[in-house]
Design goal:
Blueprint lengths: L1 H24 L7 H35 L1 H25 L25 H31 L1 H30 L2 H26 L5 H29 L5 H20 L1
Helix pairs in contact: 1-4, 1-5, 1-6, 2-3, 2-5, 2-7, 2-8, 3-7, 4-5, 4-6, 4-7, 5-6, 5-8
């Protein structure tokens, strides 16, 4: 039982790191569009890098070991695009809003004391929270099971997951904070997306342990990779460029990829 408790606490620690990222977003004013552009670019960099460098190939390895190299690769690609289609359908059926306060040019902005009131940013934050919750759920399962099998490995994984959950927390909280000016709402959604990790640990312990397989992990991770790429290309990067100044969004992308690469190296 002590091993189970330790594994769960490690998973909880990793998940709560999204709240740290959310708190970091609150050091900037709601009208600081330079920070907004950089942070959105950073979030896109994190999501693109982890999806294409880590999650996709984890899915491929899991499915290949279960189904064979060729068939596993096919199912990985199918799962990847199925994730894109899934989030695309969600996007399609989300009601479209008009934004009477849309900012067309950053340089023409005054310094209002109100939020940007941009529904596109709000929707982006909600989508990002959804994708990261889906991502964090199997990640929580993986952290929990690794810690049960080898506490030393589990601890290293939890630390690395916590590091890359910090910018993921920014990915959720920044657009919601800028859209609404509501710190509590931004923190709450970011916090809840991180709680998907300990929930994954609980589900793994109570329900899934007899059924966990490489094939199940592979399909989940492949779809999550597709979802995160879609959000980055369709939502995060266009919004980052809309508020861009002096290529800050691209510098954000590079920084996000660097942070993600470092956290993955720590996991190796």
């Amino acid at each position: 039982m002590n091993d189970v408790l330790f594994a769960f606490l490690l998973t909880l620690f990793a998940g709560l790191a999204t709240g740290v990222g959310s708190l970091l977003a609150f050091f900037a004013k709601t009208t600081n569009t330079k920070f907004l552009s950089f942070a959105l670019g950073l979030s896109a960099g994190v999501m693109i890098y982890v999806s294409m460098v880590e999650i996709f190939f984890k899915a491929k390895d899991a499915l290949s070991s279960s189904m064979g190299e060729t068939q596993g690769y096919w199912y990985t690609v199918i799962g990847f695009f199925a994730g894109m289609v899934l989030i695309g359908l969600i996007d399609k059926f989300i009601p479209k809003y008009t934004n009477p306060h849309e900012v067309k040019k950053v340089e023409d902005m005054e310094e209002p004391k109100t939020p940007l009131n941009d529904p596109a940013l709000m929707k982006m934050g909600m989508f990002t929270a959804l994708a990261l919750a889906i991502h964090n759920f199997p990640e929580g399962i993986a952290t929990f099971i690794s810690a049960l099998q080898d506490p030393t490995i589990g601890f290293a994984i939890a630390i690395a997951v916590a590091i890359h959950n910090i910018p993921e927390g920014i990915a959720v909280s920044v657009p919601i904070y800028y859209a609404t000016g509501d710190k509590k709402k931004a923190f709450k959604l970011s916090f809840l997306s991180g709680l998907a990790e300990p929930v994954g640990a609980i589900v793994a312990f109570l329900i899934l342990m007899p059924f966990l397989s490489d094939a199940l992990f592979g399909i989940i991770f492949a779809m999550v990779a597709g979802i995160m790429i879609f959000i980055s290309l369709d939502e995060l990067l266009p919004a980052a460029k809309r508020y861009d100044e002096a290529h800050l969004s691209i510098y954000g992308v590079m920084t996000g990829m660097g942070i993600m690469a470092l956290s993955l190296l720590l996991m190796a």
